[in-house]
Amino acid sequence: xxxxxxxxxxxxxxxxxxxxxxxxxxxxxxxxxxxxxxxxxxxxxxxxxxxxxxxxxxxxxxxxxxxxxxxxxxxxxxxxxxxxxxxxxxxxxxxxxxxxxxxxxxxxxxxxxxxxxxxxxxxxxxxxxxxx
Length: 132
Fold this sequence. Notes:
Oligomer: single chain
Strand content: under 5%
Number of helices: 3
Radius of gyration: 24 Å
Largest sheet: none
Order of helices and strands: HHH
Shape: elongated
């Protein structure tokens, strides 16, 4: 899912480039081809996306066996509930750390690709101006 999010960000950037091309050529007042993805921003966590839902479900599935193990050894009910909550929160915390690191790495990669493309475009423009 994280890879899918990275790819969808790439597609958004590519679609914006296409929109910019059409807006320059066909849409003088820029009402038909509005830019969707104005600034590249890092993704946020806890926005209700599929990654957040999956991390939450995985954390529940990790917390439940911990609670079952505590119940098997006949601990009090508050200890079982506390074990579930601790297991759930710890797992969710670790999931979100992983997701944040992946998003940061993906964002750096996309920024580098965008800067490289801008540098290439600038060099191409300079070369075409020198030929004239």
